[in-house]
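Key result, reporting period 2: structure in, sequence out.
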């Protein structure tokens, strides 16, 4: 057995022994505290999730024990279901990265969602992305990495009482909910208008057909055929 083959088998064995970190509402805060994360939201029955698993588990092994980085799984069909709902997961697998307190997708806004990883999903691409992006970033736990404006914002919130801060969070979440509801109302109006226009169009087409356009076309073809015959 060649040295290269032995090294490969050892690496494979090491990866297989790595226990994938699976996050739930009970351990999410403690496991992600102070870290930049790269998370896979998945469902066990999902074919694409199964295909991704070997490379993803290898990536988990690469970053196991890191003080500043975390690669982990969230099972949306089991204990992680609540986390998947909170983060707006709509398909599997969904890969999210960044500050664990700010991964929510605002899918109703016409803006690119920089919290979702949408690149290639082979091991080399995932590893390159993780190496380049999973670095300590500005956060409540890493305030020294923040610019002056962000640092002032964090300090402002830290100076509030818990009740005052929770009230502010509720106000901002209400704004998001209101925006989503307004969006859905307008979509419903557009759908109703579309259906009305479609109905109007169908009625006009039916009236034209009922008026004899089919017979007109048949007569046109017969006349053209007769003219061609005369020419011969």
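The corresponding designed sequence is given below.
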């Amino acid at each position: 057995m060649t040295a290269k083959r032995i090294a490969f088998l050892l690496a494979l064995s090491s990866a297989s022994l790595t226990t994938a970190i699976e996050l739930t509402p009970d351990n999410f805060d403690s496991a992600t505290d102070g870290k930049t994360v790269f998370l896979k939201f998945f469902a066990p029955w999902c074919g694409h999730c199964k295909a991704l698993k070997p490379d993803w588990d290898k990536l988990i092994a690469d970053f196991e024990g890191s003080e500043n980085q975390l690669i982990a799984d969230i099972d949306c069909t089991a204990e992680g279901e609540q986390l998947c709902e909170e983060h707006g997961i709509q398909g599997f697998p969904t890969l999210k990265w960044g500050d664990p307190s700010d991964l929510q997708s605002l899918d109703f806004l016409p803006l690119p969602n920089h919290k979702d990883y949408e690149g290639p999903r082979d091991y080399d691409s995932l590893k390159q992305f993780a190496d380049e992006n999973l670095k300590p970033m500005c956060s409540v736990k890493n305030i020294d990495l923040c610019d002056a404006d962000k640092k002032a914002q964090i300090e402002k919130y830290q100076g509030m009482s818990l009740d005052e801060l929770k009230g502010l969070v509720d106000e901002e979440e209400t704004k998001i909910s209101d925006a989503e509801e307004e969006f859905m109302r307008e979509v419903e109006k557009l759908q109703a208008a579309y259906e009305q226009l479609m109905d109007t169009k169908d009625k006009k087409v039916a009236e034209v057909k009922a008026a004899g356009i089919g017979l007109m076309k048949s007569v046109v073809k017969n006349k053209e055929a007769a003219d061609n015959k005369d020419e011969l």
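DSSP finds eight helices and three strands in the chain. Residues 6-18, 106-113 have pLDDT under 50 and may be disordered. This case is discussed further under Risks and Mitigation.
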